[in-house]
Amino acid sequence: MLSFVSSKTPKAHQLYQKYVKKYGNHSLESSSTVCVIGGDGFMLHILRSLYGKPNKIYGISSGTVGFLMNPPSQNLHQDIEKASLLSFKPLLAHSVDIYGKSYESHAINEVSIFRKTSQAIHVQIDLNDVTYCPKLVGDGVLIATPVGSSAYNYSAGGPIIPFGTPLLALSPLNPYFPHYLKSLLLPDSFSIKIKVLSSKKRFSTLTVDNFDVCKLHQCSISLDPSFSYQLLFKDSKTLIDKILKQQFLMT
Fold it and tell me: What is the β-pairing status of strands 56-61 and 229-233?
């Protein structure tokens, strides 16, 4: 059985009505698959709401590129049965602000740290408890999953990581020092710790998808060991083609 949700755009609502009339619309608890109609932004919104739930997710595009979406289908049941399954874990961020308050949050796309004032921030970067960058001076730093690598990470000069690749992207944001530091690809098994130096003077904000921590002191980031999302793709070749075209600026 299928459960349908759609964005508020006219095209998405039209597709929603068409599919519900044909297949019915069952509850989340009784459905093995949730069909999400809209674009990537709406898909990410629904994925956050489905954290911890066992449903498979099949995206149906009502927009343009739609990295996470499939084209509309005439035989949805058949396409879902034949679809390839992509499993991926969100990022888990443990953060502490300058007042000592702790937070735990999850990110599907990215975790980013930005300067909050006109001053550049200074951050220390540790990988698996080893300090590899004692001081990065700039606007901030961003850690992206493959799912989020084609979003803000890409616009910040980071690489697009093909889905299913066991990598994370770590991208400095407008680095002043060391000026040569570019985006890094890291094994997704790594634990990343970002410490804001002089955090009570050079204020920064941590953004974990749509959740913010103001006046950050430090944050530890790794893949969430307890949960994986299950995305269904009608044609994995089409997905790879979208990623390649984006990198060659053909879309």
Answer: parallel
* Domain of residue 209, CATH code: 2.60.200.30
Cα separation, 76 vs 70, in Å, equals: 11
Average pLDDT over residues 48-77: 89
pTM given for the model: 0.86
pLDDT at position 42 over 80? yes
The one catalytic residue among 40, 79, 126, 209: 40
Domain of residue 11, CATH code? 3.40.50.10330
Clarify whether residues 120 and 214 are in a common domain.
Answer: yes
Do residues 3 and 23 make contact, with C-beta atoms less than 8 angstroms apart? no
- Mean pLDDT score of the chain, rounded to an integer? 92
The residue range of the domain holding 207 is: 91-223
Q: How many residues does the chain have?
A: 251
Number of domains in the chain: 2
Q: What is the dihedral of CA 60, 55, 6, 79, to 10 degrees?
A: 30
User: Quick one: 83 and 150 in the same domain?
Assistant: no
Confidence of residue 151 (pLDDT cuts 50, 70, 90): confident
Q: Is the pLDDT of residue 234 over 90?
A: no
72: helix, strand or coil? coil
56 and 11 both lie in a single domain: yes
Task: Reply yes or no on whether 235 is catalytic.
Answer: no
List the structure tokens of 117: 């004032």
